[in-house]
Amino acid sequence: MMKVVHIIPTFNEKENIAAMIDVLEKIFKKLPEWKNEILVVDDYSPDGTAGVVQDYQKKYNNIHLLSKKKEGLGSALIKGYERAIELGADVVIPNDADFQWDPEDIPKLLAKINEGFDVVVASRHVKGGNVIGWNRFRELNHDISNSLLAWWVAGVKEVHDHAGNFKAIRVKGVLDKVSLDKMKNAGFSFQLHILYELSKVGAKFTEVPAVFKERRYGKSKIGFNRYYIRDVFEYVKNSFIIRFDRSQAFMKYGMVGTIGFLIQTIISKILISFSFFPGIAVAVGAEMAIVSNFLFNNFWTFSQKKIEGNKIFSKFLQFNLVSFGAVIIQGVVVGLATIFFGKNIWFPAMVFAIIFIVIPYSYLIYNSFIWKTK
Known about the structure:
By secondary structure, the protein is α/β, with parallel strands linked by helices. Helices cover about 55% and strands about 10% of the residues. The chain folds into 2 domains: about 1-225, Spore Coat Polysaccharide Biosynthesis Protein SpsA, Chain A (Alpha-Beta Complex), CATH 3.90.550.10; about 245-370, no CATH class. Strands 3-2-1-4-7-5-8 form a 7-stranded mixed β-sheet, sandwiched between helices. It has a two-stranded parallel ribbon with strand order 6-9. The longest helix is centred in the last third of the chain and has 48 residues, at about 225-275. It comes from Candidatus Gottesmanbacteria bacterium GW2011_GWC2_39_8.
C-alpha cells in the first residue's frame, strides 16, 4: 500500500482545518489502495489552530502536527517536505487549508502518479483550469510572477502553473534527491524553486486542470505588507538565480562540445591526410567526439542526473544511436560540399553543420532523453 502524506501549512486557519481533515478522511475511504496521513505545519497560530489539530490527533492516529515560528510559506513547506519524507511518504501532496484548491481533485492527481508521472500539478493554466473571484491586484501579481518571472526570466517551462501549492510529488528517486536543506526560500518563491529542483533530478511532469476559488473561511494572507515585499524581492532574485544556474549547464555543454570539436577536427584532418574521403573522415571524427561528449556530459554537465553502474553501457548505446543522426548530418553535408566545391572546403562545411544543425539537435536529445531519468 502506498502512503500519501498531505502537507498543510497553517496560520490562523482554525475555521478551515477541521473541515479539511474531515474531507481528506472522507476522500481516502474511497481510495483503499492509498494510506492517508495528514501533516499540519502550524506557525504558532494565535487563533488556536494547533489545538483543533490536537483534538483530531486523539481521534485519528494518522494526524501529525509540526509547530514552528512564523517565517513564511516557503519555510513551512520545506520543513513539511522534510518531515513527510521522515514519515515514509511515497507521495506528498501539499495543499492549503482554505479550500481555494479543491481536495476533491486529489484522485486526479494520484491517477497521474499511477500512470508514471512524478510531479502532477493542479493547474489554472491548462484547458479546464480557471480562477474565480480574484481582484485586479491578485491577477497582476500572478501574471508577473507566473508568466514574466517564472516562464520567461527563470525559464522553468516544465509546467504552466508555477505558483500553486497543490500538487502531487513522488518521493522515491525524485523528491528524496532534492537537497531541501539547501533551499532557503522564506516565501512563495519556494513554489517555483521546488519545480526547478525537481526538473534537475529528471522528474516527469504533467498538469491536471483545476479551478482556484475564494477561500472558504477567514481572510486572505496576501496583502501589501512587509512579508509581501520581502517575498516579491525573493521571487525576483530566485528567478534570476535559476536562469543563471540553467545557463551554467548550457555553458558546460558548450565547453564539452568544444573539446569534442577539437577531437573531431584532429582525427578528421589525420584521416584526410591519409586520403580518406572527407565525408567518411568527418563522420569517423564525429563518432570519436560522441564518445568524448558522452563521458564529459555524464560526469560533469548532467552530473545531477548521472548514469551509473550497469546502465552506463546500455545508455551509451542509446546515446550513440540517437547521436548517429549528428554523424549522418555531418557526413552528408561535408561529403556534398567537397563534391561540389572541392576537398579543401571540408573544414568550413563541418563547422557549418555543427553550429547550425548538430548543436541544437544534440542538446535537445541529450537533455530530453539521455539524461532524463524518468
